[in-house]
Amino acid sequence: MSELTFLVVDDAVFMRTVLKKMLVEASYTVVGEAGNGLEAIELAKKLQPDMMTLDITMPEMDGLQAIEAILQVSPNTKIIMCSAMGQQSRVVEAIKRGAKDFIVKPFEKARVLQAIENVKNL
């Protein structure tokens, strides 16, 4: 299981910490973290992670704006969107742009791990 590498992207340090803890406890490797879409693009280019959790709402560049650029610089990265309740239309838009699944805040470990399983072999 530990062969998968992750980039965790969220403007809230607390949310990144929660997700990182879940991923590490499940024996995944977190190779980096970013606080907005611009940082996510740079790190994706440099680190080429297998998967990325990407928050929809962030300052400077949100997740929706970043998806296509991330997939251009790191085409094999599978993106799992993170959204707050009530953002269904934005989640649908994210999937259209190339995201593979989504998880809703507050994160439930079982759902996070299920999303990873869902997209791992796509």
Explain the overall architecture.
It is a single chain. The chain is an alpha/beta fold and 122 residues long. It has a single domain (5-120), classed as Rossmann fold. The chain has five helices and five strands; from the N terminus they run βαβαβαβαβα. Strands 2-1-3-4-5 form a five-stranded parallel beta sheet, sandwiched between helices. Helix 3 (63-73) links the parallel strand 3 and strand 4. Helix 2 (37-47) runs parallel beside helix 3 (63-73) and helix 3 runs parallel beside helix 4. The longest helix is centred in the N-terminal third of the chain and has 13 residues, at 13-25. The protein is globular and about 30 Å long. The mean pLDDT is 95.
Helix content: 40-55%
- How many domains, in number, for the residues? 1
Task: Quote the CATH topology.
Answer: Rossmann fold
What would the principal axes of the Cα set say about the shape? globular
Provide the structure class.
alpha/beta
The number of helices is 5
What is the end-to-end distance? 16 Å
Main β-sheet, spatial strand arrangement: 2-1-3-4-5
Keywords: Phosphoprotein
Pfam family, one: Response_reg
Organism: Holtiella tumoricola
Protein name: Stage 0 sporulation protein A homolog
Task: Walk me through the topology.
Blueprint: E1 5-9, H1 13-25, E2 29-34, H2 37-47, E3 51-55, H3 63-73, E4 78-83, H4 88-97, E5 101-104, H5 109-120
Parallel strand pairs: 1-2, 1-3, 3-4, 4-5
Helix pairs in contact: 2-3, 3-4
